[in-house]
Design brief:
Blueprint: H1 17-27, E1 36-44, E2 50-59, E3 69-75, H2 79-87, H3 90-101, E4 112-117, E5 124-129, E6 135-136, H4 145-159, H5 177-198, H6 204-222, E7 229-231, E8 240-242, E9 251-253, E10 260-262, H7 265-275, H8 278-300, H9 307-316, H10 320-331, H11 336-355, H12 358-363
Antiparallel strand pairs: 1-2, 2-3, 3-5, 4-5, 6-8, 7-10, 8-9
Length: 365
């Protein structure tokens, strides 16, 4: 018999051994005779909309199969960031992903023991598998081509299983079209504030890309010519944990707060447009997109989506990291690392759009 569903505990300071016992019993991670007797808590990660806490667990009896640690994810303790999480439905989206979609895709992600929230508020908690000792990627430093290859393969494992699946339209939380359209409508005003704050660190290519995207947004939003799939939408290095020392899971993707329906290559463009300095990206991006497309075809039978169409969708998505940097930097609490990350995302994405002549591809339909 499944244990009773635990109550919502949305404040990490209120987590108790008794509550963690309830959570792990409900998930089937420990048996009815095992109790969490104590824990040690420590903050982890660099998230700006969520706060992550690792719990090192002690039990009242020997329990070889019980998890030694788990990770609790809560809303941000920064009021502005928490308000942004509520307004953009990011907390609700992540809970819905783990409840309704995660088990239908193949991408490597943490096992979720418990996910609960109070709708319309920042009261949210997820208790998940701890992926330690995997190492978090660094959005500012970038990654190797080998690591990028792992990320591209995992992207195909997210998109492929539900590629063009009409049943996805029944998941109302997954259709964030209204949110995207609202962002596009507000973009001009937000761009002005973004430039005012960061002008000293914005290069000419990035300054030109902002108004350029605003003019192209209506065409991008109107296009529905490509199959859609669940996309991560914040598919970047800070949301990736890389295994060390021959780990069985070389890459685990986290932070499922922005999942929506879109074209699959949008995740690839978002990733490659921010993970590399332009010189390195230019050398490897086509080969990596070929690798992604091959996985769709060979592993998931996507046989009505030629590579030229895939490349077109990739180029049309090349502003995506710039768009995220502009909005996210204005919504979340400001930090030095956050500023550096948003500048890297914006400038690399803008240069990608310029290199690929994205305006011409978008105007060409």
């Amino acid at each position: 018999m499944t244990a009773a569903r635990p109550p919502l505990v949305a404040d990490p300071d209120l987590v108790t051994p008794e509550w963690l016992t309830q959570v792990l019993r409900h998930a089937g991670a420990i048996d009815a005779g095992t109790n969490v007797s104590s824990f040690e808590a420590s903050s982890i990660g660099t998230g700006q909309v969520g706060a992550n806490v690792r719990y090192a667990l002690s039990y009242d009896r020997t329990a070889p199969r019980a998890p030694a640690t788990v990770v609790g994810k809560f809303s941000s303790r920064d009021a502005a960031s928490a308000a942004a999480g509520v307004a953009t439905l990011t907390y609700e989206t992540e809970v819905a992903f783990y409840r309704e979609l995660a088990d239908t895709v193949d991408i490597s992600r943490p096992q979720c023991h418990f996910a609960e929230l109070r709708s319309g508020t920042a009261d949210v908690v997820l208790v998940m598998e701890d992926i330690a000792p995997a190492e978090q990627g660094d959005q500012i430093a970038g990654c190797t081509v080998r690591q990028a290859g792992l990320a591209i393969e995992e992207a195909a494992r997210l998109h492929g299983p539900r590629w063009g699946d009409p049943a996805l339209n029944e998941l109302s939380w997954l259709e964030r079209g209204g949110t995207v359209e609202a962002m596009a409508a507000m973009y001009g005003d937000v761009w002005g504030t973004f430039v005012e704050r960061y002008r000293a660190t914005l290069d000419p290519v990035t300054l030109a890309a902002g108004p350029q995207f605003a003019a192209l947004a209506p065409r991008l939003l109107a296009d529905r010519s490509s199959p859609r799939a669940p996309v991560h939408s914040d598919y970047r290095l800070d949301n990736m944990l890389f295994g060390t020392g021959g780990a069985a899971r070389p890459l685990t993707v986290v932070d499922w707060q922005t999942v929506r329906l879109d074209v699959g290559p949008s995740d690839v463009a978002y990733f490659l447009g921010s993970a590399f300095e332009p010189e390195r990206r230019r050398l490897c991006e086509r080969d990596l997109l070929v690798r992604y497309h091959r996985a769709l075809v060979e592993d998931y039978g996507v046989d009505d989506y030629p590579f030229d169409h895939c490349w077109r969708d990739y180029v049309r998505s090349s502003y995506s990291s710039l768009l995220m940097a502009v909005f996210a930097s204005m919504l979340v609490g400001r930090t030095d690392r956050g500023d550096a990350m948003f500048m890297a995302m914006a400038s690399r994405s803008a240069q990608m759009a310029a290199d690929l002549d994205a305006p011409a591809v978008i105007k060409g339909g």
